[in-house]
Specification:
425 residues, alpha/beta, FAD/NAD(P)-binding domain, 24 strands, binds flavin-adenine dinucleotide
Length: 425
């Protein structure tokens, strides 16, 4: 007899979870039984998604950011390449599109988020991949590279349809890189760049939002806030908001609404209305059933949908799966830690570090001496570029990255001084 852990999704979260669990269960049994690990994914192409930001500007290409999925999994982990039809949480069985039925003792949902382009009227209608693009998938980012290289000037609009999205800072990074790109091409004065967001500022958290708004002003990027896109008119060249406001464009780069995966909706009791999986934000056990855990973009936890979050969640998730199988109480240790480099163009980047309770603050990371927080620097830019190496060689392999752990470091952060009235200065 063996115990079986099935991991749905072999992206960032699924791969690092499988490799960490494999390393542990190579040497440990559960109730005297061996543990087998099966990872299911619909394809064999693991995409380093942060690299998508650089593709439209000719700074990265598909061969730089895609590797075989199966090769990222340690020897001894089974890889099943097929789509998921549905999960029957009552009989603890996954039904796969290739007809296989996979009973499990523990299930991990790591299937990420889906770009729900069909939810926005006109988005993929006339003008799609001609005047209206997204860089959130590889075909879109590649098509946009050609378009940007040939763009001679006009109105470039970057639009986020609605939150939550993967890497909420990536659209801002796109604006900053567009400023750099058109400056390099000598046509910056011919390009009007606008960022249209559903938020009331450049970002979700106040201190970072103020800093990023200042950067947008510095780089000559217009900011349109509280814009909820109802329709994209590709032929007419305008975004139409639900409130009737219009934003004109010659070239629109749109981040579509995100949802969970469709199979979640076909799995009775697993997901919410958007097919995200309700999950305890500290233990990462789902609300659906105690033997189902979730990680990364697939969950509904109020952390950013980011690879860094997925990485930090992995530490707690793996510990908790081991505890669950050992009949021990779960650790409530995930604090919402997120950590993101924000590329700002001209060889510089910002770094932000935050969790459920602490917003991104200035200072240094991970301690008083370290990388500058909320401040442009070349060091941060180098960190952003080097991160790809860590991704393939440490993060996916489930190895610890020195100085970077699941718990957000407090040392080095400059907290606002409280005023006598109790408000923050
Ligand atoms: C443009 C862009 C830039 C980004 N930049 C950053 C950054 O700088 N820093 C950062 O931390 N994060 C960044 N991210 C976010 C980061 O890539 C994701 O948050 C992270 O990959 C989430 O991991 P995951 O395992 O939850 O999902 P994923 O890595 O997306 O994996 C999900 C997997 O599930 C599989 N799957 C889905 N549905 C099915 C199905 N029905 N059947 C079978 N398999 C299925 C998919 O094929 C995929 O392999 C960025 C994302 C984008 C799009």
């Amino acid at each position: 007899m063996t115990k079986r852990i099935v991991i749905l999704g072999g992206g960032t979260g699924g791969t690092l979870t499988a490799n960490r669990l494999h390393r542990h269960f190579k040497h440990h049994r559960v109730d005297s039984e061996e543990v087998e690990i099966v990872v299911v994914d619909q394809d064999n192409q693991h995409l380093y998604q942060p690299g998508l930001l650089f593709v439209p500007f000719g700074l990265a290409h598909d061969q730089d950011i895609v590797r075989p999925r199966k090769k990222q999994l340690q020897h001894g982990i089974e890889f099943e390449q097929t789509g998921i039809d549905h999960v029957d949480i009552h009989s603890d069985t996954v039904y796969l599109e290739n007809g296989r039925e996979l009973p499990y003792d523990v299930l991990v949902i790591a299937t990420g988020a889906r770009l729900a382009t069909e939810e926005t009227e006109g988005l993929t209608g006339p003008g799609w991949n001609e005047k209206v693009f997204t860089f959130y998938d590889l075909p879109g980012a590649t098509a946009l590279e050609e378009k940007l290289a040939a763009f001679e000037g006009g109105k470039l609009v970057l639009n986020v349809v609605d939150m939550p999205i993967k890497c909420p800072v990536a659209p801002l990074e796109f604006c900053f890189l567009a400023d750099w790109f058109f400056t390099e091409r000598g046509i910056r004065d011919k390009v009007e760049i606008t960022y249209a967001t559903p938020l009331d500022g450049a970002f979700t958290k106040p201190v970072a939002s103020a800093a990023l708004s200042d950067l947008l002003v510095e780089k000559g990027v217009n900011l349109v806030t509280e814009f909820n896109t109802g329709e994209v008119d590709g032929e007419g060249g305008k975004l139409i908001g639900y409130d009737g406001r219009e934003v004109e464009f010659d070239l629109a780069v749109v981040i579509p609404l995100h949802s969970g995966q469709e199979y979640v909706g076909r799995s009775d009791g697993l997901g919410d209305d958007l097919n995200f999986v309700p999950t305890d934000q500290r233990t990462l056990q789902t609300k659906a059933k105690e033997n189902i855990f979730a990680i990364g973009d697939a969950t509904n936890v109020p952390a950013s949908k980011a690879g860094s979050v997925t990485h930090f969640e992995g530490d707690v998730l793996v510990e908790n799966i081991i505890k669950f199988l050992d009949h021990k109480p779960l650790d409530e240790g995930y604090d919402g830690h997120a950590n993101c480099f924000i590329e700002t163009g001209f060889g510089k980047a910002l770094l932000i570090d935050f969790n459920y309770d602490t917003e991104p603050l200035p200072g240094h990371f991970p301690a008083k001496v370290g990388m500058p927080l909320l401040k442009e620097s070349r060091l941060n830019h180098m960190g952003k570029l080097m991160f790809q190496w860590f991704y393939w060689h440490a993060l996916l392999q489930g190895r610890d990255i020195p100085g970077i752990g699941a718990t957000m470091p407090q040392h080095g952060k400059e907290h606002p001084t409280p005023t006598p009235e109790g408000a923050s200065a």
